Amino acid sequence: MSQAEVIGTGGTGGADGSDRPGAAAGPDAGPRALWTLGLFRSELFTTLRRWRTLALLAVLAAVPVLIGIAVKIETGDGGSSGGGGGEGPAFIAQITNNGLFLVFAALAATLPVFLPMAVGVVAGDAIAGEANAGTLRYLLVAPAGRTRLLLAKYATVLTFCLVATLVVAASALAVGAVLFPLGDVTTISGTTISFGDGLLRAALIAVVVAASLAGLAALGLFVSTLTGSGIAAMATTVGLLITVQILDTIPQLDAIHPYLFPHYWLSFSDLLREPLYWDEVQKNLGLQALYAVVFGSAAWARFTTKDITA
């Protein structure tokens, strides 16, 4: 049996896709765990070093800069920007009084489009990009094992979700501190909390926003296992993202809206209430977990039975 045939059958070993007989038991468990961590670290560094990834992060970092400059120019004569309420415009209206609100405004502006598109590109390229470059079979011969490689890829995409979100938040905080005053934070409920508490809320919101992309990351990873073309996988993932977001705006389809992964994305604004309002946030995180399980399982089922010849 040729090497390509061994890889193409999903491995010769146990159900974990390790491609090694008996790899699921014995004293090798510790070294295998270390190998998995090393594999994740290698995948993460490789992803973050790519020029495409750096370009995506640069674009994300530039969005808060553009918003901050636009608000500064618009309010330079003492005017006001935006209106009331709890959505993005309300955060923009608060920026002139407190630069910390640029963090919330930037996350609200990037979450519907820029952040998920960046995640879609990285997730779509995770497996298909390796196949397209001809390196996937060599990763499996390493022996990384299909299941562990897939988990490392998904963990890498999730880490990118957090890194991308933190890049937006950090850029917004820096620009907000330079262009606008900082101080106590007035919540959506009308109460006032200290600047330190406001920073903690900003960190919590950043984590929630990153977690909101977990479902899309699993969907992109599944699409990536269906094709050997990284470009096709990225385009399909972004196309599905746009399609689902369009469906979420059609009133006649309101019955399915709560089941669409972007539906609760902007629920993070409830974390700026006093006390914290968790209902919509919990629905969002639960929905992302459901998508992660469904499409993660689909990706595993596809990848562990797929013929790998490149």
List keywords for this structure.
two-stranded antiparallel sheet, single chain, globular, disordered N terminus, mainly alpha, 2 strands
Write up what this structure looks like:
Helices cover 65% and strands 1% of the residues. It has 310 residues and is an all-alpha fold. The protein has a two-stranded antiparallel sheet with strand order 1-2. The chain is built from twelve helices and two strands, in the order ααααααααββαααα.
Nearest-integer average pLDDT: 83
Categorize the overall geometry: globular
Low-confidence stretches: 1-27, 82-89
Q: Indicate the proportion of strand residues.
A: under 5%
List the helices and strands and how they pair.
Elements: H1 3-8, H2 29-49, H3 51-74, H4 88-95, H5 101-110, H6 114-133, H7 136-144, H8 146-179, E1 185-186, E2 192-193, H9 195-211, H10 214-224, H11 230-247, H12 279-303
Antiparallel strand pairs: 1-2
Condensed summary:
The chain is mostly helical and 310 residues long. It has helices at residues 3-8, 29-49, 51-74, 88-95, 101-110, 114-133, 136-144, 146-179, 195-211, 214-224, 230-247, 279-303; strands at residues 185-186, 192-193.
